[in-house]
């Protein structure tokens, strides 16, 4: 049990979150989901608290999800994107955070293109920092909503086989999911072309239990979850892929691969989707797909975190 004195202040990655704490977060998420099922989707837990969403990279679902989560807890929420702020006038990240602090922010939810930026903010901010995605480093709330969705659908995480396929090299979602899934006892297989995976020893050194494959048809045999990732064109150097068509043939969740899956295998994707590239429309909308549930569960997970950090 986490006692009050050891209560976490920030959520920057899952690398420092153990299985017990993940369990607690998932249990809190269940209560929050119950709140969201009511006609009045609001509780007073964070009344009078100020939550600032600070997004330096584009986002639709994550940002709206955090806004709805903060409002469902009755917090005051302001969203701020780097465009149109003093950041464009050259204000540094640290100055911005000091300003937010002087303005009375209790929680900063931040997304930033540089890996590690939330650690810098956390050092200069007296409240709580929640990482909503930093570079290719981490995206802990996405991983938590993935864990919640898997457990909700399959009843367990321990001992299941999860295949993460696609642009793993550039993916903060993959890194946080690997932390969360391995902590909860899942078996994780990474499947990607060599150019979108990088050095095996990096992965195996950090997470010794991982399996690595370059053959998706072999990897999906017996999988309980197949999680496709978006090709991160904005983080990609030219020349990593021969062609999109080639990529889809080897690593896409095509209708042919969908037909190979067991009927209880979950198909996941964090969104936004490059439709027809990493996943076909047939697979994304098939009964195996839980992509919409992932989005829905994101609000409850973020409520749980806001409540645990600032409630
Ligand atoms: C992810 C992100 O931004 O890291 N999207 C999300 O938060 N739902 C994944 C992505 O952009 O591919």
Would you give an account of this structure?
The protein has 311 residues and is of the alpha/beta class. The protein has 2 domains: 4-139 and 297-310, Aspartate/ornithine carbamoyltransferase (Rossmann fold, 3-Layer(aba) Sandwich); 140-294, Aspartate/ornithine carbamoyltransferase (Rossmann fold). It has helices spanning 19-37, 61-72, 93-102, 117-124, 140-154, 172-183, 200-206, 216-219, 244-251, 255-260, 281-284, 291-310, and strands at residues 50-55, 76-81, 107-112, 128-134, 161-165, 187-191, 211-213, 225-228, 266-268. Strands 7-6-5-8-9 form a 5-stranded parallel beta sheet. A 4-stranded parallel beta sheet has the order 2-1-3-4, sandwiched between helices. Strand 5 (161-165), helix 6 (172-183) and strand 6 (187-191) form a beta-alpha-beta unit. The mean pLDDT is 94. Residues 61-62, 133, 139, 142, 172-173, 230, 232, 270-271 line the site of N-carbamoyl-L-aspartate (NCD).
Sequence-ordered SSE layout with sheet pairings:
Blueprint: H1 19-37, E1 50-55, H2 61-72, E2 76-81, H3 93-102, E3 107-112, H4 117-124, E4 128-134, H5 140-154, E5 161-165, H6 172-183, E6 187-191, H7 200-206, E7 211-213, H8 216-219, E8 225-228, H9 244-251, H10 255-260, E9 266-268, H11 281-284, H12 291-310
Helix pairs in contact: 1-12, 2-12, 5-6, 5-12
The structure holds N-carbamoyl-L-aspartate.
């Amino acid at each position: 049990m986490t006692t009050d004195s050891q209560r976490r202040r920030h959520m920057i990655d899952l690398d420092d979150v153990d299985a017990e704490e993940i369990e607690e977060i998932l249990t809190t998420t269940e209560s929050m989901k119950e709140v969201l099922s009511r006609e009045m989707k609001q509780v007073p837990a964070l009344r009078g608290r100020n939550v600032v969403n600070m997004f330096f990279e584009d986002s639709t679902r994550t940002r709206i999800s955090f806004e709805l989560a903060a409002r469902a807890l009755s917090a005051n929420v302001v969203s701020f994107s780097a465009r149109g702020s003093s950041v464009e006038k050259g204000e540094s990240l640290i100055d911005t955070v000091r300003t937010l602090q002087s303005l009375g922010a209790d929680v900063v939810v931040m997304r930033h293109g540089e890996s590690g930026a939330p650690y810098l903010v956390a050092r200069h901010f007296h409240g709580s920092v929640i990482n909503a995605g930093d570079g290719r480093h981490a995206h802990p709330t996405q991983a938590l909503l993935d864990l919640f969705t898997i457990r909700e659908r399959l009843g367990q995480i321990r001992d299941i086989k999860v295949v993460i396929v696609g642009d793993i090299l550039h993916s903060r979602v993959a890194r946080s999911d690997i932390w969360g899934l391995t902590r909860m006892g899942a078996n994780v297989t990474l499947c990607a072309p060599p150019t979108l995976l990088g050095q095996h020893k990096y992965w195996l050194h950090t997470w010794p239990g991982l399996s690595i494959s370059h053959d998706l048809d072999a990897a999906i045999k017996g999988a309980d979850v197949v999680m496709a990732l978006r090709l991160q064109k904005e983080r990609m150097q030219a020349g990593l892929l021969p062609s999109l068509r080639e990529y889809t043939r080897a690593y896409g969740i095509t209708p042919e691969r969908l037909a190979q899956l067991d009927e209880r295998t979950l198909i996941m994707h964090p969104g936004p989707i490059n439709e027809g590239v990493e996943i076909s429309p047939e697979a994304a909308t098939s009964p195996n797909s839980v992509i919409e549930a992932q989005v829905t569960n994101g609000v409850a997970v973020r409520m749980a975190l806001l409540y645990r950090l600032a409630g």
